[in-house]
Amino acid sequence: MSEAAVPSRRRELTRQRLLDAAQQVFAEVGLDAASVEEVCERAGFTRGAFYSNFESKEELFLALVDRVSTERLDSARQHLASLELSGDFVLTSGQGAVTRLVQQVLDASGEDRLGVLLTCEIRVHALRQPELAASYLLLEESMCDSVAQLIDDVVRTQKMELSLPLKDVARTILGAWESEAIRATMLGLSGEDLRRVSGERIAQLAELFIVPPKR
């Protein structure tokens, strides 16, 4: 590694640690209540380290939105690819196929209590800030495309028929998942319990979009 690459690598590690700390702090207390000092303390850095990477708390927040978006989309796409390679589309049959496989991809996002809190915090500020709204809507659309791709693969493999356009089904399922994740968080659930309960809630909804086979 060259001498020039060492400071660059160190700077990137510092930036990632600040983002890790910010993700926890913003989820716990919100953007408005969070302070630069609190983020720095959680990350183990000084204010100088913070301002050498970000101009403001708001810039840090936007960078965090971008990172969370990228991580969730990458996770969903990787899981989708692994399902295709493993042949699970063929092994999973019946009307429950769409529900089970969509749930697996949503589970792959790793949603937990802090993740739900952070998403809600992002939404609140996206309502007030056009720049943030554009980033959030782009994330939402990309996630919807990933879920739609999964549903389309399952429907074609299982020779099923949907009662609504593919994108509408994907958007409805994704919206229901997010809503149930918020509800489960309010009930005090987290981790696997949160994902399990949310998945069970959307199972019945997903089945409504499958046209029963003709007899």
TrEMBL record:
PROSITE patterns: HTH_TETR_2 (PS50977)
PANTHER family assigned: HTH-TYPE TRANSCRIPTIONAL REGULATOR BETI, HTH-TYPE TRANSCRIPTIONAL REGULATOR RUTR
GO molecular-function term, one example from the UniProt record: transcription cis-regulatory region binding
Organism of origin: Microbacterium endophyticum
Lineage per the UniProt record: Bacteria, Bacillati, Actinomycetota, Actinomycetes, Micrococcales
Pfam families membership: TetR_N
Gene3D superfamilies: Tetracycline Repressor, domain 2
Every HTH tetR-type domain range: 12-72
Alphabetized UniProt keyword annotations: DNA-binding, Transcription, Transcription regulation
SUPFAM superfamilies: Homeodomain-like
DNA-binding span(s): 35-54
Protein name: AcrR family transcriptional regulator
GO biological process: negative regulation of DNA-templated transcription
